[in-house]
Amino acid sequence: MDIYEAFKRENAKLARVLAKLIDSSAGRSTEREQYLEQIELLLDCQWRLEENYLYPVLDAFTDSRRAVEKARNENRVIGRILKELRSIDSSDPGFRYAAERLQSEAVTHMDWEQKELLDMLRQKIPQEQAQLLGQRAAEEILA
Q: Taking a C-beta distance cutoff of 8 angstroms, is the pair 72, 112 a contact?
C-alpha cells in the first residue's frame, strides 16, 4: 500500500463514521458517544499521517508550504468543532448542527487533501518513495 492508498482508506473510514453520527438519533446518546470516540481515534490517526508522512515531505518544497499551512489550519478548525461537539449534550438539538458542521469541514478537508495535497506529493516524489511512506505508515500508525 502506498501513501495515497493509506489516505484514501483512512478518509473513507472517517467519512463513514461521520455519516453514522449524523444519522444517529438524539435518544441514542450511547451510540453517539461511540461514534464520537471513533471519530476522535480516526482524526488522531489522520492527523498523525499528515504530520508524519505528508507535511514534512511537502514542506521541503517552497511552493507547497502555503498548502501545508492551509491544511494545518483546517485541522485546527476541525479540532475546535469536535471539542465544541463534545461539550454539547447529545440530546440537544444543537448537537446535530455541530455534527453536521464537523462532517462538512472534515469532508471538505479530505476532498481538498485528495485533490490538491496528494496531487502535489505525486508530482514531487517517485512512486517508490510513496510506497515506502505507505509501508511505514501502515507499520507505525495504521497497525
A: no
Burial 85-122 (b: 16+ CB within 10 A, else e): beeeebeeeebbebbebbbebbeebbeebeeebbebbe
3-state secondary structure 38-95: HHHHHHHHHHHHHHHHHHHHHHCCHHHHHHHHHHHHHHHHHHHHHHHHHCCCCCCHHH
CB atoms within 10 A of CB 123: 10
Q: Read off the C-alpha cell for 17.
A: 463514521
What structural domains and CATH numbers belong to the chain?
A: 3-140 (1.20.120)
pLDDT score for 111: 96
Encoded amino acid at 113, one letter: E
Q: What is the pTM of this model?
A: 0.92
The string of pLDDT tens digits covering residues 2-37 is: 999 999 999 999 999 999 999 887 667 788 899 999
